[in-house]
């Protein structure tokens, strides 16, 4: 028994393959250039802070993400060190992403300087 599908112009016989679904391609939002007087954050400093002190969320405070930094700090301190292991791994991963360029803006949407 042959399968048929509706291609919008009428029914056509299926040649053994399902119709392809092409998901929409989203463009990442671009950051902005810093406004006059705004001090750009350093990509290298943020990455090194994330790798070395990511357990305490210092890199998040540096980039302006104070709520995320506070959450990382409190989870590290209030779980008697058990949560610190998870936050430490999280910090290393974010540090690699920052240094790799996958995280390239601060909390205000301004590009990090190299």
Put the structure in a nutshell.
This protein is 43% helix and 5% strand.
Major sheet characteristics: 2 strands, antiparallel
In which order are the strands of the major sheet placed?
A: 1-2
How many helices? The count is 4
Distance between the termini: 62 Å
Helix proportion of residues, in percent? 40-55%
Describe the structure using short key phrases.
single chain, 114 residues, mainly alpha, 2 strands, TM2
What can you see in these coordinates?
InterPro entries: TM2. It is a multi-pass membrane protein. Keywords: Membrane, Transmembrane, Transmembrane helix. It comes from Neglectibacter timonensis. This is TM2 domain-containing protein. The protein is mainly alpha-helical and 114 residues long. It has a domain of 63 residues. It is built from four helices and two strands, in the order E-E-H-H-H-H. It has a two-stranded antiparallel sheet. Helix 1 runs antiparallel to helix 4 and helix 3 packs antiparallel against helix 4. The longest helix has 19 residues. The radius of gyration is 23 Å and the shape is globular. The relative contact order is 0.18.
